[in-house]
Amino acid sequence: MNLRVRLLEGNSVQCFKVVGEIDAFTAPKLRESLAPAEKLKDMQAELDLSEVEYVDSTGLGVFVGFYKAVKANGGHVKITGANQRLKRLFEITGLSEVMDIEMGEGGDEDAVL
Fold it and tell me: Distance between CA atoms of 42 and 15, rounded to whole angstroms?
């Protein structure tokens, strides 16, 4: 599946709209799309995952790397639009304790990992 990443800049927040599945094949594209922003000082980033249905461990690694780089430069990363399945994945891995994650509208209560 293809992955699309659009940068929507608004005020002082850079919002990345991510669409598709994030796996070993698409994670490099995501990493490449986020790389320029992670070097900015005091950057406020928002990753909109409302149109992402699947993330594997490679994708999680990209999120962790981006989070660490932005935080090291005094910035903040917020993940928005996570469905029930993604929210559960962030909880299982402990990332929900570290990252700012906001659920999307209407969850998939029946979603199973």
Answer: 14
Return d(Cα 70, Cα 1) in angstroms, integer. Answer: 28
Global pTM? 0.86
CATH superfamily of 3-103: STAS domain (3.30.750.24)
**Tokens encoding 77:** 């990363």
Count of alpha carbons within 13 angstroms of residue 66, beta-carbon side: 29
| Structural domain spans, the chain | 3-103
Backbone angles phi, psi at 36, to 5 degrees: -60, -35
* Spatial separation of the C-alpha atoms in residues 110 and 78, rounded to whole Å: 25
pLDDT tens, residue order, the chain (113 aa): 689 999 887 667 899 999 999 999 999 999 999 999 888 899 999 999 999 999 999 999 999 999 999 999 999 999 999 999 999 999 999 999 999 999 876 544 444 33
Q: How far is Cα 86 from Cα 59, in angstroms, rounded to an integer?
A: 11
